[in-house]
Specification:
Elements (H helix, E strand, L loop, with lengths): L1 H10 L14 E5 L5 E5 L3 E5 L6 H7 L8 E2 L1 H11 L3 H4 L3 H9 L11 E2 H17 L8 E5 H8 L8 E3 L5
Antiparallel strand pairs: 1-2, 3-6, 3-7, 4-5
Helix pairs in contact: 5-7
Length: 169
């Protein structure tokens, strides 16, 4: 890995190297030019065609008052869809919710429920990461994981995504 990193540094500026993770959720991605790669569910991409998120509105919506301490995924999706602010275009299903919250290490407990406060903080943090977490994002771009994109593509309203292969461009 070090040899490759050193070789690439000579060709381009490397701003970071993440550890290689072996994930049971790996997907083969085929680009429009026919090239294929394998990416895990948490691999992040700069994309067009993703959700347009209003962070201040999302934060305000998620300051719910009397919420149960723990909540099931389907109830979360139902509540988020009722709040508006493009949350229904982002968290389209319980699968989309799972992938979104995995990106900020918020997981279901042994009974299949989320801690409400961790859930709220996780959604706000991921919304920040998606819309402003990467330098050089253009107005129509956001950052989504492979899992988030696949979950969104299961919804008939989403037609696909444009990928920018080099986030530094």
């Amino acid at each position: 890995m070090t040899d490759l990193t050193e070789q690439l540094k000579a060709e381009r500026q490397i701003i970071g190297v993440s550890p290689i993770e072996v994930s049971p959720e790996a997907y083969e991605i085929t680009f429009s030019d026919g090239q294929r790669i394998t990416a895990d569910a948490n691999h992040q991409w700069v994309v067009t065609g993703g959700p347009k998120l209003n962070l201040k509105a999302i934060e305000a919506c998620l300051l719910w008052g009397k919420a149960p301490e723990r909540i099931d995924p389907q109830s979360v999706v139902t509540v988020l869809h009722s709040l508006g602010e493009n949350l229904a275009d982002w968290i389209v299903s319980t699968e989309a919710l799972r992938h979104t919250l995995n990106m900020v290490d918020v997981h279901l407990d042994n009974e299949g429920l989320y801690n409400s406060e961790a859930l709220r903080r996780g959604i706000i943090e991921r919304a920040r990461q998606i819309s402003v977490g990467t330098p050089n994002l253009l107005d129509d771009e956001c950052v989504l994981s492979t899992g988030e994109m696949l979950a969104l593509m299961q919804d008939s309203r989403h037609k696909g995504f444009g990928l920018r292969r080099d986030p530094g461009e």
